[in-house]
Every structure is written in structure tokens, then in C-alpha cells.
Design a protein that fits this description.
The complex is a heterodimer of chains A (421) and B (330). By secondary structure, chain A is of the alpha/beta class. Chain A is built from 16 helices and 13 strands. Chain A is globular and about 85 Å long. Chain B has 330 residues and is α/β, with parallel strands linked by helices. In chain B, 42% of the residues lie in helices and 12% in strands. In chain B, α1 crosses α2 and α4 packs parallel to α5. The chains are: A alpha/beta (421), B alpha/beta (330).
Chain lengths: 421, 330
């Protein structure tokens, strides 16, 4: 079976990591020929952070165009632009999250990512919430679920959860601070608001985006093995994300004996059970989150109970070998079944495109209206600046007396500015 | 010393034997009506023999990875026409052989595969083969996997882990016409007259519900998947045997722990010995070096930098004078 996974790049990240794991494990099965196709022209084959990537075949988009595949798989919404350029018997879209949520309402990527879900493809996804959403959006399209595995070599489940009876509660916060939906700063704020003794470790890939924060330790970016060690030195993983796919990090922590305090984010229901292996905290309730952390710091029996059950959850979670066997079986089934019918997908795509055009039209009209108002204001300001008296008055600001008068008039000028805007 | 084992034997914990037997019981009507019956991972055949009672299918194909075990199963089941196949269920060629043995009878095969999938390094081939056999030859499959989340220890024999989520992924790979069952644990007690002989009791137990935690997940697919029965089975606990089983494991564990402690003590002793010897060697080395210094010889076993005069010579060297090793003093 000849399979192409389409990726934007091969930088170390959760989404690409999942694809690389599947590619690597499928390649190890007999009779599978796996290729990673880099769809961005400017991307070269770089395997920073992936020890095993050199074992995989990596092609540029141009090179892949001359090959024939049994299955071609888009793995990120932008990679779908290349999906149908490739010659393949089946086209598959591996949806790791509803990627339109990664963009704010005023970003073009939001509509683009949403539209790709209308393509005539077979879906594979990694979380039941995505599968349910896709079933609602695209009842015509087949959708298989292949949950992510855990690299049990890197994150082997501990035999017993370590006992922390006296030390401070060791809180681990992980995530990219530049991604708004990870809410890393909120998590740091909640941990800092704890009353009980605590030790906060922040693991992030972008110190600049993190800025000045209150934490005992800031490390990263870390390799997976270093992450495993960091989890092992922690009691609880704190994640307050508002968008997640399968929500892997707390599960990795489970393997190394941590529990978690998390928001009821998409994907949490795959394995987090409130009061059994972790605690769920409310949205935007940073004080409440701090009190939950305080509870764990005070009640060490509860902490250990949650950690022990988290470890039990981890043991039953499939490894990457097993997850990729599910992927292999799903791909074989997709190859066996007829390709999905494209009429329903096209109708859906055009309907959504029409909706997008309507929104774009409204936004263009709003923009034209704003431009008209701005022009009016600019004319008034221009006329005022041309007036010799006002010019003289503006010149007075160079002198001390002028600045004093300007300061006194500031409320008036602010109001005028507000009115104009 | 007995070993943690996965095959069902007379020594297996009674509760585990009952749950294994029950799986064969629910499949028994299918097994007896179908032809032939194949049991993948047949083991010793004890649970199947108990579940089938006095009835036997006309033809059977017994499959296991261990030839001796297949022979034992054939003997325990007392089958009139049994084909023994030793094979690996991850190997497409072995699966082909099993398929050939089944289609030879030209009937509607029934295949049981209980507690096997989790032992395979890959289940991809088995699932593909089963789907093909169900589609092309009208075979009905009944398979089961354990709920590993139910057990607090990691089973060293399992190559894959199963839970609600993993089973959900598996069942999506099966043909759409299928029957899914949960196997749940039942516990209880009974009061009997002091001298009464054994008597069959009808029990009334409420079982099931979507929140019932499964110990095992069962799926049937193929043309007769719907004929799969539901059932409950409770046996009087043989407390002596149960206690024996538990004590055996407790004593094995105690011995293992003791062995570990002893080995740790041995390692500690050896570490002490090693330290003493290292200290002794260090003393000898110091003594030999003193002698070598007195004789003006280079120090044996020492690096170039540690040789006497190396530092002063190196500092007096010009950049062009870059001989790799300092000359011994005259």
C-alpha cells in the first residue's frame, strides 16, 4: 500500500508529530510504503527533533506530482490545496482538530479552514468530538476514528504513582504562549493565585511570546524525553485551553504519574474523568482554578488517588504501534471501499462558499463605510491644520506654557477624538 | 514455581474460568449450528469443552501458536473431526492456511477468537482476513478483547491495550452488520442448608446498562451475528481453590520480593568490595608513581598532562613547538 501524508513542514509540533508517528509505524509494517510530502515549496526536509525521520521517505510537492499513490492524506487544512493535485486512488483528510477555531473571526484562515471540510474525501480523525461534529457537518462522508497513541518508549507508564506528602504542589504548565487558545498566561496566573505552597514549571517554545511571568522555572522547548522527565517531577498538569484536538499533554503526564486540572476543552472527554483521574475547572474561572490547585496541595490523599487512577488510565491507552494498526486497518478499508461520492460535497462546498461570500460582502460594505467616515474626518483635520491660527496654537506646544495648557485641555481633546472616531 | 500465565488451565482462578466459559456459552448455539467451527487461540480447550457440554460440532479447526497446546485442546474437546493448525495470526500465509481449512467444508463457518487480539503484535492482518472471510464465505466471527482499564496492573503478556475508546476504534473497522456485547462482572453469595446436596439454583440478577463497566468487549459479525446470545453464569466459588490460587501468587510474589532484596544485598556487598579494591588499586598506583618519580620514569597509566613537568614544559612551548606528548625528564 503506497501512502502519501501531506505536511506543511516537519518542525517539531503536536500535529506534525502525530503524522510522523503514524508514518513511521506504518512504514515498519510489512507491505507499506509511506512518503511524507512537503507541500510548501520553501520547506526543505529538516528533521529537527525527530530522531527517526531519516528512516522515512520525504518528497517535495514537485517530486510527488510524478508519482502514483494508493492513498493521499491531507493532514492540515492548507495541505488540502495539494491533495487533489496528487495522483491517488483515494483522497483522505486526516482531521486533527476543527482548524478554523485556530483563527479569530476576522482572519481569512478561519473561512479557508472551514471550507476544506466540504471536500469530497474520506475523513479520519483522532477524537470522538471531531467525529461527531463531522458526522453533523458531512453526513455523506465516511469518517474513521484513529485515536493518537502514546510513545510508550518515551512515556512508559510508571509502576506506581510517586507519593508527594510534604513538598510544595508541583504544577506543570505546558503550551505555546503565542497560541491564543492555549491560554498559557491564564494558567500561569491561576497557579500564581494559589495560597498553598507550590512550585510552578512553565514549558514553552517561545520565551518572547511568554514575556515576564511569575513562575519558579521556565524551560523549553524540550524534546519528548525531556518532557517525560519534566512530567515525572510534577504532581499536576494545568491546562486551560479552549481548543484542543485529542488533548495529548495531560495523557502523557498520566503516564509519568501526574494528574491534571483542565478546562472541559474538546478532547478532554477521551480520558479525563472529574474526581477520578483529574479535576475539571470552569471556563475563565482563574480563582476557582487556584482553589482547586490549593485543594490538591492540602489534600494529599486526594492528590495521590487522582494520580494513581491517572496512571491506570494511561496503562489502558494504546501505544503508537497499536494506534497505527488502527490507521492501517482504516486505510485498507478506505482503499477497499468505493471513493466517496462528490455531488453532496460539492453542493455543501458551494453553499458554504456562498455564505462566505455573503459575509465578505457585508465586511466590504462596512469597510467602505468606515473609509468614507475616515475621509470626512481626515478632511476636517486637514482643514484645521491648514488654518494659520490653529497652526500657531500647535506651535505653542513646543513651549512649556503650551504643554501646560494642552494638558489642561486633554479631557476636551480626548472627547473630541472619541466623537470623531 | 508457577508462572503468571494467560492460558486457561485447571489452576486458573475460578472467576476467570467462569468468564471465559461464558464467552463460549454465548457462542455455543452458533458453533453447533455452523459448519465448520474454528477456534483461533484455542488454548487447552477447557472452557470450550465446558461450554459445549455433551454436544460437539461436526467439524472443527483448532488454531494456536503452540502445537502441544492444540493437541491438548483436541484431546479435551474429544472432537470426531478436528483439524489442528499451528500458526501465527499475524502472518497472512498462516491465515490463508486457516481460511483454506475452513472453506474446504463448504458450509457457513463460525469462528471464535476470544482473548487473542491483545496478544498479537499486529491485528491488521487478522481483521482484514476476517472481514474478507465474512464477506466472501459467509463466515460469522465472534471476537473478544479485555478492558485493560479494568485491571490495575499491566498485563505483561498483552501487546496492545484495550479500553472503551480502543474498542470503539476496532468496531468501526468491522463490517457494519454486527452485534456488540459487554461482558460485566457478577458477584454474589448463596445460603444453603447444612447437609443439602448440590442443587441447581435459579438466580435473578439485574445486569447491564450503558454505565456498566465492562471487563471484556465482545463483537460478532458475519451473516449470523444476530444469533449471538446473551447469558450470565455464576459458579459456586471453590474457596479452597480460590485461596490456593491467591496464596500461590502471594507466595510467588513474596519469594520474588525476597530474591530482589537478596540480590540488592549482594549488589551492595559487591559494590563495597569494588570500592575497597578501587581504593587498594589507588594506593598501589600512588606507590608505583612515587617509585617511578624517584626513578625518573614516566608515570604508567597517566595521561600526558599528568606527567611530571608536563605543565611547565607546555607553558614554555612556543605555538610552533606543538609536540603531542611531553618528553619524559632526563
Amino acid at each position: 500500500m503506497k501512502v502519501a501524508f501531506l505536511v506543511n513542514d516537519l518542525q517539531l509540533s503536536g500535529g506534525v508529530g502525530v503524522v510522523v508517528q503514524h508514518a513511521r509505524r506504518l512504514n515498519a509494517l510489512g507491505g507499506w510504503d509511506i512518503t511524507l510530502v512537503l507541500v510548501r515549496e520553501e520547506e526543505g526536509a529538516s528533521w529537527h527533533g525527530y530522531d527517526y525521520l531519516p528512516d522515512l521517505r520525504v518528497l517535495s510537492r514537485q517530486e510527488a506530482l510524478s508519482e502514483r499513490f494508493d492513498v493521499a492524506i491531507a493532514t492540515w487544512w492548507e495541505t488540502t490545496f495539494t491533495l487533489f493535485e496528487l495522483s491517488a486512488a483515494r483522497h483522505v483528510y486526516f482531521v486533527q482538530s476543527l482548524e478554523d477555531r485556530f483563527y479569530r473571526h476576522d482572519e481569512a484562515g478561519r473561512l479557508g479552514a472551514a471550507l476544506t471540510l466540504d471536500l469530497p474525501v474520506t475523513f479520519i480523525t483522532e477524537a470522538s468530538w471531531i467525529q461527531q461534529t463531522l458526522a453533523g457537518l458531512r453526513p455523506d462522508a465516511p469518517c474513521y476514528i484513529v485515536r493518537n497513541g502514546i510513545d510508550k518508549d518515551v512515556f512508559p507508564p510508571l509502576e506506581h504513582a510517586p507519593v508527594n506528602t510534604t513538598g510544595p504542589l508541583r504544577v506543570l504548565i505546558e503550551g505555546s504562549p503565542s497560541s491564543w487558545f492555549k491560554h498559557v498566561h491564564d494558567a500561569i496566573y491561576a497557579a500564581a493565585a494559589m495560597r498553598e505552597p507550590h512550585h510552578v514549571t512553565v514549558i514553552c517554545d517561545d520565551r518572547q511570546a511568554l514575556g515576564e511571568v511569575v513562575a519558579d522555572e521556565i524551560v523549553g522547548p524540550l524534546s519528548h524525553r525531556a518532557m517525560a522527565a519534566a512530567y515525572e517531577q510534577s504532581d499536576v498538569v494545568l491546562k486551560l485551553s479552549s481548543v484542543e484536538g485529542m488533548f495529548g499533554p495531560p495523557l502523557e503526564g498520566f503516564h509519568r504519574g501526574t494528574t491534571c486540572v483542565v478546562t472541559p476543552v474538546t478532547g478532554h472527554d477521551e480520558y479525563v474523568e472529574h474526581g477520578w483521574n483529574g479535576l475539571l475547572t470552569d471556563w475563565d474561572d482563574l480563582r476557582g482554578t487556584a482553589r482547586q490547585l490549593d485543594l490538591l496541595a492540602r489534600d494529599r490523599e486526594l492528590l495521590h488517588f487522582l494520580r494513581s487512577n491517572a496512571l491506570e488510565t494511561a496503562r489502558a491507552w494504546p501505544s503508537w504501534e497499536q494506534a497505527s494498526q488502527f490507521m492501517a486497518s482504516a486505510l485498507l478499508a478506505i482503499a477497499r471501499e468505493p471513493a466517496p461520492e462528490f455531488h453532496a460535497a460539492t453542493a455543501r462546498l458551494l453553499a458554504d462558499l456562498r455564505g462566505g461570500i455573503d459575509i465578505y460582502d457585508v465586511q466590504l460594505r462596512e469597510r467602505a463605510e468606515f473609509a468614507r467616515r475616515a475621509l470626512r474626518v481626515e478632511r476636517i483635520v486637514g482643514r484645521a491644520r491648514a488654518n494659520p491660527v490653529i497652526r500657531q496654537l500647535l506651535r505653542l506646544r513646543r513651549f512649556r506654557i503650551g504643554r501646560v495648557v494642552a494638558r489642561a485641555l486633554r479631557p476636551l481633546s480626548s472627547r473630541a477624538r472619541r466623537l470623531l472616531s | 514455581m508457577s508462572d503468571w500465565q494467560e492460558r486457561i488451565t485447571f489452576e486458573t482462578a475460578p472467576a476467570i474460568r467462569v468468564e471465559h466459559e461464558l464467552r463460549y456459552r454465548i457462542a455455543a448455539p452458533l458453533i453447533l449450528a455452523g459448519d465448520p467451527w474454528a477456534d483461533l487461540g484455542c488454548g487447552n480447550g477447557l472452557a470450550a469443552a465446558a461450554a459445549l457440554g455433551d454436544s460437539r460440532p461436526a467439524h472443527a479447526v483448532l488454531v494456536d501458536i503452540d502445537q502441544a497446546v492444540v493437541a491438548r485442546a483436541a484431546s479435551a474437546l474429544e472432537l470426531t473431526d478436528a483439524t489442528a493448525v499451528t500458526g501465527d495470526l499475524t502472518d497472512p500465509r498462516d491465515l490463508q492456511r486457516i481460511g483454506d481449512a475452513l472453506v474446504r467444508y463448504q458450509g457457513e463457518p463460525v469462528v471464535t477468537c476470544f482473548e487473542v487480539v491483545e496478544h498479537l503484535s499486529s491485528f491488521v492482518e487478522l481483521i482484514e482476513w476476517a472481514g474478507m472471510l465474512a464477506h466472501d464465505h459467509g463466515a460469522t466471527f465472534v471476537i473478544s478483547v479485555p478492558n485493560d482499564a479494568f485491571w490495575s496492573i499491566q498485563n505483561p503478556h498483552h501487546r496492545s491495550s484495550w479500553s472503551e475508546g480502543a474498542f470503539e476504534a476496532l468496531r468501526e473497522l468491522l463490517p457494519p452488520q454486527r452485534t456488540l456485547l459487554r461482558q460485566v462482572a457478577v458477584s454474589g453469595s448463596a445460603v444453603v442448608r447444612w447437609d443439602s446436596p448440590p442443587k441447581l439454583r435459579q438466580l435473578s440478577v439485574q445486569v447491564g446498562g450503558t454505565d456498566a463497566v465492562a471487563t471484556h468487549f465482545i463483537a460478532a459479525f458475519g451473516p449470523r451475528h444476530d444469533d449471538l446470545q446473551t447469558a450470565a453464569l455464576a459458579n459456586q466459588t471453590d474457596a479452597t481453590r480460590q485461596r490456593r490460587w491467591e496464596r500461590e501468587r502471594e507466595s510467588n510474589l513474596a519469594i520474588a520480593q525476597k530474591v530482589v532484596v537478596e540480590q540488592e544485598a549482594t549488589i551492595a556487598d559487591q559494590r563495597g568490595d569494588l570500592r575497597e579494591r578501587i581504593a587498594q588499586f589507588d594506593e598501589w598506583r600512588t606507590y608505583i608513581h612515587e617509585l617511578e618519580r624517584e626513578l625518573g620514569r614516566p608515570l604508567s597509566g597517566a595521561s600526558a598532562e599528568d606527567q611530571p613537568g608536563a605543565a611547565t614544559e607546555a607553558s614554555s612551548h612556543t605555538p610552533s613547538d606543538s609536540s603531542p606528548q611531553a618528553e619524559p625528564p632526563a
